Amino acid sequence: MASLRGICCGLILAATLALLSGCGKKGPLVPPEALVPAPVTNLALAQKDGRFQVRWSAPSKQEGGAALKDLAGFLLFKRVVLPPNDDCEECATAYGEPVKIEIEYPKAAKRSGNFWIYDDRDLTAGKLYQYKLRSFTTAGVQSKDSNRARRTAAIPPLPPVLEAASSAEAVTLSFVGLPPEQGTPAGYNIYRSKKGEEFPLFPLNATPVTANNYVDHLPQFGVPFSYAVTSVATVGEETIESAPSNVAEGSLTLPE
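The structure corresponding to this sequence follows.
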């Protein structure tokens, strides 16, 4: 009986040791800070009309390099940059209450693929503003701060007047705008969408069009398109767009 009891105890001890040794083969522990979203690195600003367009790409990885699967939204922080002797970014009151943007219900933000845009209309011309962003997960865990983006709000140019003429070869746009109140004229940006759809976030042209006309060679006959044009001004080293022009429609027409 004693020998049987000894054998049982030996088996239990061996099983326990096997389990303990198995636990040690799971690999190194992942530190908690590696599981948070990687910080956004491409936060940028553009001024369109009287608003700042705040742009960024959503992170796709955790800080440790693994795929990020539980991104829930963003916190966008904004502050007014004061003169050097008075400015204090580290002060508790430097940034106001952040704007919360949820992935499922973005409300004030727009999404295009992995690209996000938030329009900030609370601006005063001549003031310098700075923004930063944090991502957060479904568990509420926040990333580190993004890069900082700052810009001085300026007076935008007035929108141009637009006309469109259709033909069998192309749609020809003609437009004219007034000189900007602030800065120098840089040209125009052209926006096109199918009739009834929203205009895209970015213009057809890679750089501002300096002429007062634009010829658009469409690939399809009979499909109506809508056009809008903005005036572009240069203020310092930055460019500013006006509000969109009136909307004009055009399409390729069958030759007579």
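Residues 6-24 have pLDDT under 50 and may be disordered.
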